[in-house]
Amino acid sequence: MAEADPAITAALPAVREVEARDAATLDRLLAEAEAPFVVRGLVADWPLVQAGQRSAGEARAYVLAHARQCAFPVSVGGAADGRLFYDAAMAMNFRMMNAGLAEIFARIAEGEASGGGPAIYLGSIDLHDYFDGLHAANHVDLGERAALASIWIGTRTRIAAHNDVPHNLACVAAGRRRFTLFPRDQFTNLYLGPVDNTPAGRAISMVDLHAPDLDRFPRFADALAAATVADLEPGDAIHIPALWWHHVEALDPFNILVNYWWRESPRWLGHPQDALNHALLAIRDLPDDEKAHWRQMFDHYVFGDREAAAAHIPASARGVLDPLTPETAGRLRAYLLRQLSR
Q: What phi and psi values does residue 42 have, to the nearest 5 degrees?
């Protein structure tokens, strides 16, 4: 796989680096973070990292020793340089399969030996559902955060810029990774693709970071002006705050990353992407005057002063206009499901 054009990445400032010598320091850094940061060597003592430092084969053997006997979802294909993206017809340029991990690793080893083969990518594999003991022996202490722990394994790949709703701590266990990051407000300059036809559930940038077409995507120059980059070695970690955009490249023939996702909001709250999708269904194609009204309603009830919006209603009768609880959120969700099922 070709490395990113140095003319593009060399001029980008590096992501801020910090030190986190203990769990309490990391907890404080995560709680205060308003932008991404890198922690060098955060997980250098993991047995998985140490196995990978010896060889890719030892890393695979270590992971396989903890794998459950089940089928693993895997993506196979992509462009010649490992880019997992759309094809000319806007279908995915890779196919999804299910196979045993030993079979998948054998295919990866064949590609290593031959210097070729398709991109092979296991993305967001739940550590608790697919492995026994792997998380216990290789994990970061995140305190009270109820984090989802996932592993990402594959050959050289690159994933277009996208964002995630949760906060993210991504730890490189084998191979090198390059993260190119863009602030939340850069989404219009990234030229996002479809929201209902995505490689992994999140809209992605249509711009090829290795060869950006600035005639077609002129505002991408502004996104690059706001970007930062982090090149990570095994044992390093990067924190990506919620909704920050990130382009991710796995740079070596074999790569493993372990990441943790968590939200500061309660799990029983709804997903913001669902609200956006429903707004596309219910509001976007209304007449302009009606859309203007609903914009005002959203500003009043959702983005404005929550207490002022309900101050005139008796406290015992405010319902979902009061701060939501698990019970009122459940009732609201049940109501929405009934309405959407009509």
A: -60, -40
- 42-96, pLDDT tens digit by residue? 999 999 999 999 999 999 999 999 999 999 999 999 999 999 999 999 999 999 9
Q: Which residues have CB under 8 Å from 335's CB, separation 6+?
A: none
Contact 262, 270 (CB under 8 A): no
Q: How many CB atoms lie within 10 A of CB 294?
A: 14
pLDDT number for residue 1: 40
Q: Would you place residue 2 in the very low, low, confident or very high pLDDT band (cuts 50, 70, 90)?
A: very low
Strand ranges in the chain using DSSP code E only, listed in sequence order: 17-18, 37-39, 71-77, 83-84, 94-100, 119-126, 148-154, 157-162, 167-174, 177-182, 228-232, 237-240, 245-250, 255-262
* Identity of the amino acid at 182: F
Q: Which CATH number fits domain 6-262: 1.20.1600.10, 2.40.50.100, 3.40.1160.10, 2.60.120.10?
A: 2.60.120.10
Closest CA to 250 of 153, 139, 112: 153
Q: What is the pTM of this model?
A: 0.94
Cβ atoms of 123 and 130 within 8 Å: the answer is no
Which residue, chain included where needed, has tokens 């490689």? 199
For the four alpha carbons of 241, 243, 244 and 250, in that order, the dihedral sign comes to: positive
Three-class DSSP category at 23: helix
Taking residue 7's Cβ as centre, other Cβ atoms within 10 Å add up to: 7
Q: Rounded to 5 degrees, what are φ and ψ at 250?
A: -95, 115
Domain boundaries, the chain: 6-262, 272-340
